[in-house]
Amino acid sequence: MQSQCFSECAWRSIPLTIADQQTHIERSELLLAEAALGKSPVLYWSLAEPVGLVLGFSQKADVLNLQALAEEAIPVYHRRAGGTAVLVGPHLLALDVVLPAHHPLVLADLVESYRWFGETWARALSLLGIETRLITPAEAHEQRTQAKREERRVHEEILRRACYASYSPYEVAVGQRKVVGLDMIRRRNGSLLQAGVLLRWESETLARLLGHTPNEQELLRRKLPERAVGLDELANRCVTAQEVIEAFETSLFSLREK
Fold first, then answer.
1. 219 burial class (0-12, 13-18, 19+ CB within 10 angstroms)?
2. Three-state DSSP state, 193
3. Using the 8-state DSSP alphabet, how is residue 106 labeled?
4. Tens digit of pLDDT for each residue in 157-206?
5. Which helix (H) or strand (E) holds 187?
6. What is the helix (H) or strand (E) element at residue 174, kind and residue range?
7. Residues forming a β-bridge with 191
8. Which of 35, 87, 166, 249 has the most CB atoms less than 10 A away?
9. What is the dihedral sign for C-alpha 28, 116, 36, 81?
10. CB-CB contact of 239 with 201 (8 Å)
11. Residues in Cβ contact with 172 at an 8 Å cutoff, skipping those fewer than 6 apart
12. In what order do the strands lie in the sheet with 86-88?
């Protein structure tokens, strides 16, 4: 890997964009479609307005509590990447990283392609005084294995309706609670890596939207705060989106091959 692939001049950073989630989805698709050999990699920062619920590519709408969704007038979107439901809004800062094919950060091993991204996020949060860790591939695999055990299966299926309730390799956590979620779309012309960092963890809203019965909602209310956490709680203050952006870009552009 060339050290200059982390040089600020080698990247195009699009300033924070606040818009409805469909606009962000379409912008991400356009940036990925435009990726080509020789083009600069892109950072696209976004916040959704209004609040919305984004389902994974193969996730069905029957996971939703349609009455709660209608009462709160929350729109639903679908993303191209996998995973499960993510609540978007001013509480979740999103980053799309578009890499052209054959960029040094695009690895043949899909799982290992996340490592640099998670490491960069961990370094960024450390700059904000928040010490985190990376979820290892073995740990993510073990969580999936344990979730299939008969005594846990039903509860875990309910919890996994929410993307931040489960682990994927090289996501960023504090203890057992996730703070940065990751996913990826890979095409022939390039890769799109996506991150969502929780400025606040809106677990109560998710419990209402994803719990079909009072018992399911109660389970989600109790357990979701054990699975994820917001930067506000970790820092004991409101951490702004701009602070996070500056910390991430400082972390990214300071990396050099040893």
1. middle
2. strand
3. -
4. 999 999 999 999 999 999 999 999 999 999 999 999 999 999 999 999 99
5. strand 177-187
6. strand 172-174
7. 99, 186
8. 87
9. negative
10. no
11. 118, 121, 122, 125, 132, 133, 134, 135, 178, 179, 180
12. 76-78, 52-55, 86-88
Token couple for 218: 């109660």
Match 């959704």 to its residue by tokens: 48
Structural domains present in the chain: 3-253 (3.30.930.10)
Rounded Cα distance between 155 and 143, Å, is 13
CA 12 to chain centre: 21
Side-chain-side CA neighbours of residue 17 (13 Å) = 18
**Which amino acid, one-letter code, is at 55?**
L
The candidate with the shortest Cα–Cα distance to 43, out of 124, 126, 136, is 124
Distant-in-sequence, close-in-space partners of 121: CB < 8 Å, separation ≥ 6: 132, 172, 180, 195, 197, 248, 251
Residues 6+ apart with CB under 8 A from 209: 53, 64, 65, 68, 69, 72, 74, 85, 87
Question: How, if at all, do strands 177-187 and 190-198 pair?
Answer: antiparallel
Residues in the chain: 258
pLDDT tens-place string over residues 77-136: 998 887 899 999 999 999 999 999 999 999 999 999 999 999 999 999 999 999 999 999
134: left (phi over 0), alpha (psi -120 to 50) or beta: beta
For residues 209 and 205, what is the distance between their CA atoms, to the nearest angstrom?
6
User: Rounded to the nearest 5°, which phi and psi values hold at 132?
Assistant: -130, -175
d(CA 177, CA 223): 11
